[in-house]
Structures are given as C-alpha cells and as structure tokens.
Amino acid sequence: MSAYLGRRYRLSASHRLHSPALSEARNREVYGKCANPHGHGHNYTVEVLVGGEIDAATGMVCDLAELDSCVAREVLEPFDHQNLNTLDAFQNRVPTTENLCVEIGKRLRQALRSDLSLKVRVEETGKNFFETS
Amino acid sequence: MILLTRRAEFSASHYYWNDAWSAEENARVFGKCANRNGHGHNYTLEVTVAGEPDSVTGFVVDLKRLKDTIEEEVLAAYDHRHLNLEVPEFRTAVPTTENIAVAVWRRLEGKIEGAKLHRVRVYEMPDLFAEYTGG
To answer: What distance in Å separates residue A28's CA from the closest CA in chain B?
Structure first.
C-alpha cells in the first residue's frame, strides 16, 4: 500500500526576473515589474510530497524528522534569506518560480531515498504556484 | 472528467505505538507522539471524486449526499474519538496520517453514488498531510 506524505515549508528570498538574452524593452514586456533592477522578494511556500510504501511497523511512508532535515539542508539553508540571482543555480537561468521549483526538485531527488517518489510545488504568492514531479 | 473535492473536519486524539517494540524503541521512532496519554489534532479531510457532470443537473455528484456519506462513514466514527482506542482499524494499524488516509479511502470506496473516489487527503495540521489514491 503506497501513499504520499505532504509537508509544507517556508522560505523568504529575493529575485529579479531578467534575461540577458533579451533586450531591455523585451525584458520589460515579458517580466513587467518583476524586471525592476533592484529585485523584490517573496515568502515562498514549498510543498514536498514524498510517495512510497507505508511501512507496516511504523505506519509511515518516511521518517518525518529525516525529511525535515533533508529539506532544511538541501533547500532552506541554501535558499532562505538569499538573493536567488546571486546563487550558482541561477547564474544561467532566470530565477522564475518554475526554475526554482525544478531546482528544488532536482536537489531533493538526489538526496532522497531512490525508492521514494517525489512531487514538489512552490507557491510564490497566494495566487501563483508551480508544480513538478 | 471533472474532479470535485469536498472538505470536512474532525477532531480526534491518538498516539503512535507499536506493541511489537520496547518502550525505548517506540520513543526513539515516534518521539513525543509515543506518549501513551495521547494527544489530539483538528484534522481536515479532503475527499475528491471523479465523474462527468450530469447533463440535466450539471452536478458530478449530489453534494448533500456526498456530505452525508462522509459524515456517516467517517466523521461519525472518528470525530471526538480516540483513534487508537475507539476505531477498529487502528487497533492494529498505527493511526498515522498515512494510515488514516488509507482507512478513510476504505470507508468511502464504493459508497459514493454516481462518481468514482479519486483521492483522499488528510491534513493533521495545515503543514502536514497524507494522500492516498487507492494504490
């Protein structure tokens, strides 16, 4: 019997959406106020769903404390209270929440047990969210 | 196909304990959840059903009937109860959020008229939930 365990985490970070491949006018057109030169910030919510067999002895898909420490190490420590544009992961990619979601998914996939499946959802505001699986 | 979700809430107490283990092992694995005096949560249940909207009513299911089914099959057994001590399925299974999601699925499966049970999601707290789709 398999199920998903979902856990929500919060991180605050700043970013600027601006692509060097586009002209200033085109950046303004595509990203609007998100292209303002000095950036802006969000309180992101990261929802992590980990899927797998429910262990018969514990009744759990995975150890919650281990998941928390994995997310803290792989996601919260590197991204919380940072300017995303300055981080290695976003030197060649615009730190849109789509790309942040993919990056978080990649980091967690490498860190989690390979028999667990993974879905990640990142909420940028109460209105926008992005999912990867 | 349309997915329709109905939320419901119940409050219950529980503890995590595996009789096959020593007290030390239970404390190590389950932490403060292993306190035999129990503790409680306000659970939120999301029941998602799948179906086609009826050409006459435009409904996937009769919402009142879905609400009544959730109340009769789940809330009547779980709300303001001690899950370990009063709910039969948790005499053997630890009432983790994962196992509650599975148990709710089993209580509802086949009992929703006109639509198929698609997903059960149980929130133990706003930041912790489990979902089961019948796998």
So the answer is: 36
